[in-house]
Write a structure and sequence with these properties.
- The protein is built from four helices and no strands.
- The protein is mainly alpha-helical.
């Protein structure tokens, strides 16, 4: 490994920040650097606002879909399952379907009918 690569590998995070700051000063100059920083700050702020607004709209849409579908039609699975049968039983139970003595195919059919009703 060349010496320059070994030196670059030993530079820590705060030293990289100083190197980047010096490079920005050389590229933009001391007069344009504050303006550049403000522009970057505004862009990051707009991104965060848009991200928060998008998240809020997605949560509102999900809540509205739950209200429109009715709480009883939305299966509630509380955790991971070990088998397909266990998943079917959890969904059927959350929808108020009795699982006793029914095959997987019968459960799937009953779940489909209950959710489409």
């Amino acid at each position: 490994m060349p010496l320059s690569s070994a030196v670059l590998m030993n530079i820590a995070g705060s030293e990289w920040a100083i190197i980047i700051l010096l490079a920005l000063i050389l590229i933009f100059g001391t007069k344009r650097l504050p303006q550049f920083s403000r522009t970057i700050g505004r862009a990051v702020g707009e991104y965060e606002k848009t991200r928060a607004r998008f998240r809020q709209e997605m949560e509102e849409a999900a809540e509205q879909a739950k209200r429109e579908a009715g709480i009883s039609k939305v299966p509630r699975i509380t955790g991971p399952v070990e088998s397909e049968r266990q998943k079917l039983e959890m969904i059927a139970t959350s929808l108020g379907i009795d699982c006793a003595g029914k095959s997987d195919d019968e459960l799937r059919s009953l779940i489909s009918r209950k959710m489409s009703a």
